[in-house]
Design brief:
This protein is an alpha/beta fold. Helix content is 34%, strand content 26%.
Length: 113
Amino acid sequence: MSEHVTAVTDASFEREVKQASHSQPVLVDFWAEWCGPCRMIAPILDQVAAEQAGRLKVVKLNVDENPQTPAALGIRGIPTLILFKNGAPVATQVGALAKAQLAAFVTPHLNVV
């Protein structure tokens, strides 16, 4: 994890994601250690989190260590990225993304400063 990306767990998901500040959306990366595409997008997520600091919160949830939340959200493959706004999922992307694709995925949901 980087200084701009934090880890969440089944126990902290409600507080960190669903009850997060309504001023910024939360991008959740559902991942696992053994997942190659998950490791591939990690540095891209770090870059986007740094560039959008204050406008976008980026968190990661390890699906092997925290199986309840992915099951509740119906996640079947990883990496899965879900963007939450005002505590509700507004967009989902399954699979690895290039930086431009990730930016295009999150930008429409960011609040204009």
